[in-house]
Every structure is written in C-alpha cells, then in structure tokens.
Amino acid sequence: MQDISRRHFLAGLGGLVGVQLVGPAVLRTGRALASFVDPAASARHRIVVISLFGGNDGLNTVVPMADVGGANRRSVYEKVRPTLAYPTSVLLPLDRPGDAEQALGLNPKLTTLHGLYESGQVAIVQGVDYPNHNYSHFTSSDIWQSGQPDRAPDSGWLGRHIDRVGIADGEVRALAFGTDLPLLLTGERETGALVTGIAETRFTDGTDPYADVRHQALARFAGSNAGEPVRRAAGAVARSTVGLVDDFEATPVPPGGPTNLSRMLMNARVLFEQGLGLEVVFVEHAGFDTHNAQKKYHEPLLDDLDASIGAFFTGAYRGQDLGLGPMSADDAAKTLVLVYSEFGRRIGENGAGTVTGTDHGAAGPVFLIGPSVVGGLKGDHPALGSPLAPADNVQMTTDVRSVYASVLRDWLGDPDPRYDAVTPLAGLFTPTA
Amino acid sequence: MLGSTTAVSTLLTTREDVARLFARVAFGASAAELDQWTGRPYVDMVDSLLAVPPPGPLRTQPDDATRNALYAWGGVVDENATPKLDMIQTWWLERMRTTPWPLLERLTLFWHGHWATAYGPFPDAGMMLVQNQLLRDHALGSFRAMANAMNVDSAMLWWLSGQDNRTPHPNENYAREFFELFTLGKDPQVYTEQDVREAARAFTGWGTNIYARTVQFDPTLHDNGVKRILGRTVPNLGAAEHEAITDIALAQPVAPRFLARKLVCAFAYVASGDDPLVAKVADTLRSTDFDLQAAVRAMLLADEFRHPDHAAGRQHVRPPVDVLVSAAKAIGIPLTGSAMPVVIRLLGRLGQQPFKPPNVGGWPMGLRWLTPATLLARYDLAFTLFYARDTTGPGRVLLPPSNDLDAWTARFGMASLDANTARVIREHVDAQDPSLSEEVRQLGVLALLLTSPDWMVV
C-alpha cells in the first residue's frame, strides 16, 4: 500500500512529519488483514515496560542491610532516615551466590519478586541513571524514555526499534495503555498504538448494518483534502481507530484485575496471545512522588506492583484467580518485564514524623523479570558516603544506555545504531533465550 | 486602557473568525453568534468576550449558591457529609456550559491545568473549589497576584506538600514545581538545584486548618535564615517571604515568554519558543506587569492568532472538557442530570477530568489529544449526549433534519466543513435504508460531526 499504514498513529509534533496525503480509505478489513500477520511474529521476544512514575525510592526498594566490605551503607541509611529506614528484620534478604558481599534486602512488600529473584528470574541492575542528571519528573522521564541524554528527546528507544523493524499491515506491534501516548513508543516514522483497554476498543453502537455504515464513514474522514496538517492528522487517526477496532474484534475481554496496573497487564497477556504480532507494551504505574507521608503511600504502590507482576505470569493476584490461568512456559520464556523509574529519591529524608518523605533524587535500580533473564545483582549498590558525611544523592554506577543496548541487541535482536559507542551490559539473558 | 489595537483587528469579521474565536476561548459559538458578529469589527467581538465584570458583586452568578453550599461544610471531617469529586465536577461543567462569561471559565480551566492540582480526598472538594475561585478571580487580573495566591492556597499546600515544608528539613516539592512548571520553565532552565533548595527554605512555615478552612503561617516552622535565590539575597520576611520569591521569579527574562508560550499553545497552536505570537504576548506581559487580560487580548487580536489563511491556521486541537461543554451547549443538554456519572467516566477515557489532572504537569496539548483511545471515547460521548437529551419535556431538544447539513454546522458553531467531511456525512445519510427512522439518521450525523476533524481542530 502506498498510503500510510493504519498503525501509524500520530502523536506529538514529530508525528506530523510523517503525515502524507492518504489514498482511498481502508474499510473494516481487519479480520482479513489479521490473517496476513506473519506466523513468525508469534515467535518474537516480548517486552513489557512498567514506568514507576513520580520517582521511586530505590533506596527503600533495594535496601542496605549491613555495612560490608568497607562500605557504610547501612549506617548512613539509618542515620539519615530516622523515620523511613526499614529495620533489617522485615527486609527480604537477597542471598544468591555472591550477594553476601553487598548485604541487600528487598522491600517487605516485594514478596513475589523476591521469590522470582531467589529462583533466578530477576536481574536487579543497580545505580542506573544517565550523566548530568535532571531532577524534573518530565525532563528525566523524557530522557529515560528516549534513552538519549545527550540530545533532544525526539523519539523513544523502543519507538526507534519500531521504526527499524516496521509494522506490517494488521499488526499491533507496539501498544501503550492510557490516554496519552508515551514518548517511549514514538519513533521518527512509526508510533505505537494507544488504547484504554480491550473493552474500550469496541464500537458500543454495535455491528448492525446501520452502525457499520457509521464506522465506514468514520474511517473515510482520512480522505480529507484539507490543506493543513492537523485536520489531516485527525482524519488519519479516525481511520486508524476503525482499523484497530477491527483488529481487536476477536480479542476477548479478560476478567480484569483488582487494580488498574493488574488490569492493564492482564489485557496485555490476552493481546500477546492473539497473533497480532504484539511485541512491546508500555504501562504506567503512577504515584511514586512521595515527598510527604512516604510510609503511607510507598508500600501500597510496591505491593500492587509486586502482585500485578505475579498475576501477569501466574494468573493470580495475591491468590485471587483472575481467570486466565498461568502464562504458558513457552510464552513466559519469550516475555521480559522491565521496571524503571525516572529517578530515585534523596538519600536523606525531609520533614519529621508521619509527614516525612523524600525529595527528588538521582540513580535507582532497574528490574528485569522473566524466566529468560539471568538473575542476580548486576553491578554494585552505589556508595552512600559515610555517617559523618552522608551523600546527598545515589550516584550512577550503570548508564541506562548500556541496559537499553543490551535489551535491544540481546533480547529484541535489533541493535540501535545510536548506541554503537555504548557497551551493552553483559549477561542479562540466557544464551538460549 | 487595554493596549493599542493592531491593524488586523480593525478588519471586519468573517464567519470563520467567529467560529474560530468562540471555539478556542468560549466553548463554541451559537448560530445566533455566528450571524451576530459576522461583518462587524473583529476587535469589537474580542472585547465583547473580554467584557467580564470585575471579581465581586457584579460577577455574581446563580450557581454561586450551589458552589457555596458545596464548600461550606462546617468543619466536619465526615466522609459521607463531604462533597465528592463528582459533585464539584458537575457543578463546574454546568457553569462552563451556562455562564454569561464563557471566556472567563475557559481561562479558569486553562489556569487549573497550569497550576495542576488534583482532588485527594485531600485536598478535598471544598479546598478545590476555593482554589478554583482564586483562579477565576485572577484569570483576567495579575499573574503576580495569582501566583501569590497559589503559593499559600490550601489545596496547593496539600497537593505539593507545602504544609509539610518546615525547618530544619524542608520539603522541596512546591519550590521545584514553582520554578519548573508555574513560572520559569526549562527552556532554557535558568534556575539551579541550589535555587530550588533555597526557595524551599523560603516557602517554609505554612499550614492548613481543614476544620476552619484557613491557612496560617507559623514563624516557628519558618527558616529565618538568609536565602540566596537566582542571584538575589532574601532576608527573613516571614509570612511575606513567598511573595519575594514570586517577584524574583517574575523578574527573570524567561518568565513572560514561558507564560506566553503556554497561553499560545493552549489557545492557538503548539508553538516553539521563538514563535512571533509568543513574542507578542510575552512583550505584553512584560510591559503590563503581567496583566493577564492585556496578554489574552493581545493574543486574540494578533494576526498569527487569526491566521488570514484559514486552512493553514486550523491547528488548535480542542481539549476534552471543551469538546464536552461545547457539544452539550450546542445540543442544549444540561450537564446536571442522571447521565453525569457516565459523562464523567467518559471524560476519564478522554483523558481530562476537571479537578483531577493526571499529575502536576497538567494535561497534554495539541496532537496528543488525537488518539484512538480518545476518538472512541468521543464517539461514545455523542451517543451518551444524544440519548441524554430531553425529547418530551419542557426542555425538549429539536435537532436539525439529518439532510440539512448547513443547519447542523451552524448549530455547532462551525462556519464551514471540509469538502470531504461534508461528503462523508451526506453520503452516510444517503446510504441508510430508506425505512430507517429519522432519529437514527440524526444520531449518525451527530456521532460523525463530533468525531470529525473539523470539530476537533479549530
């Protein structure tokens, strides 16, 4: 087809560049198109990216349990966090081979992740950040999602992946849940799709002939000859939407989950199994900006994260069966979950008493989860200074670009030329994966 | 008093001018307004929209009483007795639809997104309404006064931890966003991390009393030391110190441009920092000491806002709340009835619920509103509104005949339709089974009109 693909969703000014005049409208042909999806697409490795938006307190996620090897992490932690420090007795110790040198424990709410870690299915990359750290939620989030701290955030690191591999007709290769398309899935030519959920990607006026005429008319808004780009973009989105509804037509609506995060992840589960070529999913888990009353707000968010990731793989949210059963071993082996936050928080706490929180900080841990991951701690926990001179921020020990370069080359099989000078982090995935 | 008019502003108004201006700043024109202003001086139309009485008795509206009842809950912290989010959302949406001063409400919505604060349960509905009124009071006043009001607003003190900001361990939440999101921006960033920390010290000492619905300054929680912010030394000024921070921020050359760009992006088009319209509005802010009425007027009168080339000029994507209110206004549906829970849920799917911005950065703008997720929600909205209309009672709504497209466009405040849009809608009506009821045909026209590029992009 010469016209733009139905999957070229437009978002942000960058999307305008790709707008072209469109040819005859494509009308409700999704079912036929779906059969064109390359069967090999189902063999693709998948990645689910979870953003802990607001700035997750990495120091209370992966927590120092003792002073070891000359590093006074635990002493500093207790000194500068009189209110927020976890006692060692409640932490979930990390005790895989070699871990003793660092003496770390997971937040008590991360029981599922701890179990997966102990069985070698979680890699914790420590001290991840980028040079010249930025303390703004929005700027730092753009840098994490673009993966390019040294140039304008013109595209997402996975959006550029979609640019390189392309999206075939009838494929839904990259997808975000929500109402605002993330930079992460915005390429220079292609972008991911954006839906609220499977249930919402339906026409509620039915499929009778009268409704069908309306849907066809909607798709034809893409035929606008209006000279200006924004109205043309609006028309193109109308047609994309009709195509997306077609593509989702045979997709069952999962029973959902008790929380928004688990609902999105269960939607992703179903879509991965639909043969739509889905490869990349983005979900946001927001609320981590714990400037105040962190004790009250942080733990429920980690609890939901832990339970939702558990549900994604096992089908049960803290024991509650969500009706899909466990992910098959074959599917799980193809699935990677990456959890990050746009920054960690300050080492020292603010305020006093119940209102105590932490302000915007710098580096933090990245979690890579799945049976194909080589589990364990990657890199050292950053130093925190000394009790007499505590550091202000968690310093970078791993450049985020080395993580992305590894995921792109070793997991998705598609290196980004922009990372040619970056050394990918080694040993994140099993060789057979 | 309001500044000089440019040459273009004396031009006579076209029907396209009326449609564009009202769609951007007044929740759409009625058919009568389209007729009324066409052919008259453009400047008169702008000044008519700006003719809002000053805050006080002259600005009284019937629904003030409803609002006052919602926030006068007498200091009882009782979940069941406290007004809820949906109640204040409904109140505001209906005010937007019915107000005699739509530009004022549209600006208040904009400033709500600028000082983006979300209902909690704390800040509660009452605090949100107090803040909402402050934004309305200052929306055509001084930005300096607006900023000083926001610095010590109870909802804001809850939302960005101001009431937990006390010496000796200050909380930086508000100070950072004050510079980044409220006054200076980051293009370029002129403040440092040290400025954020020093400003946080200056903002210490404020708290809220949720029973008395007041804010208070406690000198014992305030950092009495000298602060150094953006190159200026700030001595201890106690309760007045936050105003000094406002003054220091607004003295930065980037401040007028940052605010001007936000206005232009919200009401005209997504502009770059060196855009000529941004420069004009920034100049006005600078020369009037941040007079927002003068700034808005300068923007609305500028050539770049009017775009003599109408086709190239259609770049403003209507935000969801505007889509809803404009549609309800055009159809004639009160935003008060039993459909409101559904409507508010749809606003969630559209990505914009009043009093519930997604985060402190507010809502996105421009093309980011054009997505499959929001288009499907807009399509569903058309059905919800269609079936919510009164078809039998005294407020009975009559829609134009399905084959009279000109009547539909006038009803919805549109001057014209793109040829393709018109053809698609006409052919949709013609393609229907002849035995199909007129009501179903009308529904089809409404659903297509509200999802059309012409309605979304103005």
Strand content of chain A: 5-15%
Radius of gyration of chain A: 23 Å
- The number of helices of chain B is 24
Q: Main β-sheet of chain B: number of strands, strand sense, barrel status?
A: 2 strands, antiparallel
Largest interface, by Cβ-Cβ below 8 angstroms: which chains and how many residues each?
A: A-B, 68 and 67 residues
Kindly report the CATH topology of chain A.
Answer: Alkaline Phosphatase, subunit A
Mean pLDDT of chain A: 90
- Spatial shape of chain A: globular
Helix content of chain B: 40-55%
Global shape of chain B: globular
Order of helices and strands of chain B: HHHHHHHHHHHEEEEHHHHHHHHHHHHH
- Judged by helices, strands and strand pairing, the structural class of chain A is alpha/beta
Number of strand segments of chain B? 4
Secondary-structure content class of chain B: mainly alpha
Helical percent range of chain A?
Answer: 25-40%
Q: What is the strand content of chain B?
A: under 5%
Q: Uncertain regions of chain A: pLDDT < 50 for 5+ in a row? A: 1-35
How many angstroms separate the termini of chain B?
30 Å
Contiguous runs where pLDDT drops below 50 for at least 5 residues of chain B:
1-6
What is the second-level CATH architecture of chain A?
3-Layer(aba) Sandwich
Supply the CATH superfamily name of chain A: Alkaline Phosphatase, subunit A
Task: Give an overview of the whole structure.
The complex is a heterodimer of chains A (433) and B (458). By secondary structure, chain A is an alpha/beta fold. Chain A has helices at 12-16, 30-34, 73-80, 111-118, 137-146, 157-165, 209-220, 229-248, 260-272, 294-314, 329-333, 400-411; strands at 46-53, 62-64, 92-93, 104-106, 122-129, 174-177, 193-195, 280-286, 316-317, 320-321, 335-340, 364-369, 376-378, 398-399. Chain A is 30% helix and 14% strand. In chain A, the strands form 3 sheets. In chain A, strands 1, 5, 6, 7, 8, 11, 12, 13 and 14 form a 9-stranded mixed β-sheet that branches. A 3-stranded antiparallel β-sheet of chain A has the order 2-4-3. The longest helix of chain A is centred in the last third of the chain and has 21 residues, at 294-314. The two termini of chain A are 35 Å apart. The model of chain A is unreliable at 1-35 (pLDDT under 50). Chain B is mainly α and 458 residues long. Among the domains of chain B are: 7-51 and 269-313, no CATH class; 320-456, no CATH class. Chain B contains 24 helices and 4 strands. Chain B has helices at 15-25, 31-37, 42-50, 64-71, 85-98, 102-114, 125-138, 143-151, 154-159, 173-183, 193-202, 241-250, 254-267, 276-287, 292-301, 303-306, 310-313, 320-331, 340-350, 372-388, 405-411, 419-431, 438-451, 453-456, and strands at residues 206-209, 214-217, 227-229, 232-234. Chain B has a two-stranded antiparallel ribbon. Chain B has a two-stranded antiparallel ribbon with strand order 3-4. The longest helix of chain B has 17 residues, at 372-388. Chain B is globular, with a radius of gyration of 23 Å. The model of chain B is unreliable at 1-6 (pLDDT under 50). Chains A and B meet through α1, α5, β7, α7 and α8 of A and α10, α17, α20, α22 and α23 of B.
